[in-house]
């Protein structure tokens, strides 16, 4: 099967994707000149997926994010997402991609404790022995829960892509993640969401396959 590039699998698709990449680079080259090749590739994919060059200004990665993230995906460690839509967008990964948002244990825990299902799903994942990369595109409560569980030693996390979108708690949760020692990628402010989360993790997966 012919490999895909940025979702392309035909000559016309490759041509469009290549032209799109040229346009993206022309828009953000100056903004990304201090990034490593891997970091720049991740930002390019985010901008390409959102058609929003501002992501070159607001996407921030810890110094160890790429290293720890690549180690995890290269070893085939689990990827955990906050919602099913993010899980559905992750492709070409040979490891397991998990989401517990609709798990019966999650629904029960959320009902008994009155936390959001997204936060409860993180607890369930930890109880199931999760160890790998967390990808959060929508739920700030899930990101807060990850940070808390890592801090207490009750969850093993290699790296976190924390890009929840919204005006309630999203910016605050990402700023808090930046203040931790967890290897991370965030988008500062309220912007983020499923397309950003998917672009970031798929870029990491793609880099690992081409090393």
Automatic annotation (TrEMBL):
Its EC number is 5.4.99.60. Gene3D superfamilies: Cobalamin biosynthesis CobH/CbiC, precorrin-8X methylmutase (3.40.50.10230). Keywords: Cobalamin biosynthesis, Isomerase. It comes from the Archaea. Pathway: Cofactor biosynthesis; adenosylcobalamin biosynthesis. One of its GO terms (biological process) is cobalamin biosynthetic process. GO terms for molecular function: cobalt-precorrin-8 methylmutase activity; precorrin-8X methylmutase activity. Residues 15-206 form the Cobalamin biosynthesis precorrin-8X methylmutase CobH/CbiC domain. Pfam families: CbiC (PF02570). Belongs to the CobH/CbiC family. NCBIfam families: PRK06264.1. This is Cobalt-precorrin-8 methylmutase. The gene is cbiC.
